[in-house]
Amino acid sequence: MYTISKGGLIIMKLLTVAIPCYNSAEYMSHAIESVLKAGSEAEIIVVNDGSTDDTEKIGKEYEKKYPDIVRCISKENGGHGSAVNTGLKNARGLYYKVLDSDDWFDEASLKHVMRIIRRDVLYGEDIDMYIANYVYENHNTGKAKVINYRSALPVEKTFTWEDLKHFKVSQNILMHSVIYRTKMLRDCGLELPEHTFYVDNIFVYQPLPNVKKMYYMDVDLYRYYIGRVDQSVNEDIMIKRIDQQIKITKIMIDAYDLTLIKDEKLRKYMTKYLTMMMTISSAFLVKADTEQSLKKRDELWEYLRNASPEMADMVNHCLLGRPMQMKSAAGRKIIVYGYMLSRKLIGFS
Fold it and tell me: In sequence order, what DSSP letters do the residues of 137-155 get, joined into one string?
């Protein structure tokens, strides 16, 4: 677990946490402080993505105070994906996780995560992906909603895709819940598009066929702050940025022909995730309710069919596949109602 340099004993970095920051001066300290609780076996890379406020100043202050833990890397603005790429490129930790600058980690859960990673590294257990719970912290309602995976994944044990159970609607594996082996991410050639929103969906989709061994920790690690009007997941903003959502969905369609994924349960999960992306795009396009937006909805489904008719059939057989393509006025109302209901079930609103 340790390496020796001329300067003495150097503790191996088990975990790199990249914190993409763009004009995050108001709240980034909370995120950084929460990761510092992991101690010197973790490193924090503050990625200043071309901010115009005091983001870089704050990052450099933490770097000066914690030189063995914190690095602040400044770059031209390239968007969230570019910041995640920069973090991955510079990561020294055996494992890699992304923490958005307005979110934070639970201290007790983080210490549990570090204990498990430390144990597995010590015993040569090469886990490709760790999974932990995340919590929606709703600023507007004051309520918190925990998303756990107890019914879908074996708890506190190493497993493979064959061991997956049934995933509920709310149990998608998101950026908030994953910790990847750094080398695996690099080996699979992950590189997120720049100046593009919603790239986190590629982050938790593209690497999956390269993931062989997993471990789920039933702890509420990631605290996901929702409720700010300027957030990219704000509904009005998502409708305005629907072309970005469509772009990401098309990248995912092009990433794999899911019919060629040999592992049945992995193929089923990836189909479920792609269906979710098609559903979100369709729901917002229908909710916009313009001739142009409805045309874009139909064009997206045609794009999927042209990419692979067999893959389109797989998506259509999922719960929300066919309903999202309804064209009547009554059908469009059902689509919007179904989307709003799913947000409430997940705990996002």
Answer: EETTT--EEEE--TTTS-S
Cα-to-chain-centroid distance, residue 226: 15
User: 337: which 2 tokens?
Assistant: 């109602």
Residue-wise pLDDT for 239-274, tens only, equals: 889 999 999 999 999 999 999 999 999 999 999 999
Which phi and psi angles does 289 have, rounded to 5°?
A: 55, 50
How many H helices and E strands in the chain?
12, 12
144-147 and 129-138 as β-strands: parallel, antiparallel, unpaired?
antiparallel
For 299-339, what is each residue's pLDDT tens digit?
A: 999 999 999 999 999 998 876 556 565 555 555 555 665 56
Mean pLDDT of 121-140: 94
Task: Give the single-character DSSP code of 171.
Answer: -
Closest CA to 300 of 335, 275, 266, 319: 275
Cα→Cα distances 345→147, 221, 224, 349, Å: 11, 21, 17, 9
What residues form DSSP beta bridges with 226? 138
Q: Give the length of the chain.
A: 349
Read off the tokens for 335: 């689509």
CA dihedral 226, 132, 274, 246 (to 10 degrees): 30
Count of C-beta atoms within a 10 Å radius of residue 292: 9
Calpha distance 265→263 (Å, rounded): 6
**CB of 129 closer than 8 Å to CB of 179:** yes
